[in-house]
Design the sequence.
């Protein structure tokens, strides 16, 4: 998740649907929603990414958060099953997008397994961290482990806290974003103790996010190359910490497309190829 991002898939946000009742968003400015997404795409292209754009899907408000319906691996995509009922059509939709682009599909979750892509963090090509919470269950973790076992990938799971309950979104990436092989950004109050201990055991240090900026996606950061990141505007403290530590920070206005739906710049992307 910190190697150079070369190909990435995004989805144009829909402006059709009940954002509040169906998806538990805070009502966005729908014109600004589309404009912010367009500016986000332009920023990724400026940073050297080839951006593939999937069309909006009316009524699937959360589908703009392309990171969640799949896990991209070095061996192909794993299609997930989503715990949030209104998002359950999304994996089938992203399958069509991946097939159109010729992206290989490694496998898919079945039965009672659920998982969101936002609950996974690749530390390196052989180490995958998964958050066990309301959006990702034990069966989902086990099936992901089984799909990756033939490739020698070690999968470690960490229990996420109850926080605001099953209807609120809390992903592993809500509290952890790698910015290089040796550094990350962490929101400590909700980070599992075992996770922090694991990071220390791997000699990974971190910058901390404060209680206010975690709600404006200060802990959800997209790394496009080691120490080159994209951060939602409105997070001056973590932005300052990143810059002071030598990180190149690229800001985008995500007041509607990110903050109103509780999804940061990583959530807006489905990475297809990193080198």
Sequence:
């Amino acid at each position: 998740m910190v190697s150079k991002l070369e190909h990435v898939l995004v989805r144009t946000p829909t402006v059709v649907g009940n954002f509040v009742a169906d998806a538990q968003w805070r009502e966005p400015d729908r014109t600004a929603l589309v404009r912010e997404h367009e500016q986000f795409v332009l920023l990724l292209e400026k940073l050297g990414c080839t951006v593939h754009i999937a069309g909006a899907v009316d009524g699937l408000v959360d589908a703009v958060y392309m990171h969640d319906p799949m896990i991209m691996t070095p061996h192909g995509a794993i299609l997930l099953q989503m715990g949030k009922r209104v998002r359950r059509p999304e994996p089938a939709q992203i399958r069509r997008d991946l097939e159109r682009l010729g992206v290989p599909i490694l496998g898919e979750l079945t039965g009672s397994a659920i998982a969101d892509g936002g609950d996974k963090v690749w530390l390196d090509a052989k180490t995958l961290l998964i958050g066990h919470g309301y959006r990702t269950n034990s069966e989902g973790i086990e099936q992901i482990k089984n799909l990756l076992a033939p490739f020698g990938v070690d999968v470690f799971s960490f229990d996420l806290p109850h926080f605001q309950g099953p209807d609120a979104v809390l992903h592993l990436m809500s509290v952890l974003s790698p910015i290089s092989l040796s550094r990350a950004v962490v929101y400590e109050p909700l980070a599992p103790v075992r996770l922090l201990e694991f990071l220390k055991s791997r000699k990974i240090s971190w910058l901390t996010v404060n209680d206010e900026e975690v709600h404006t996606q200060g802990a959800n950061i997209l790394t496009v190359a080691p120490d080159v990141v994209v951060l939602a505007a409105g997070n001056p403290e973590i932005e300052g910490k990143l810059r002071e530590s030598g990180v190149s920070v690229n800001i985008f206005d995500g007041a509607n497309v990110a903050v109103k739906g509780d999804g940061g710049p990583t959530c807006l992307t489905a990475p297809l190829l990193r080198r």
Q: What stands out?
A: The radius of gyration is 17 Å. Residues 52 and 97 are 10 Å apart (CA to CA). The chain has a mean pLDDT of 97. The chain has six helices and 15 strands.
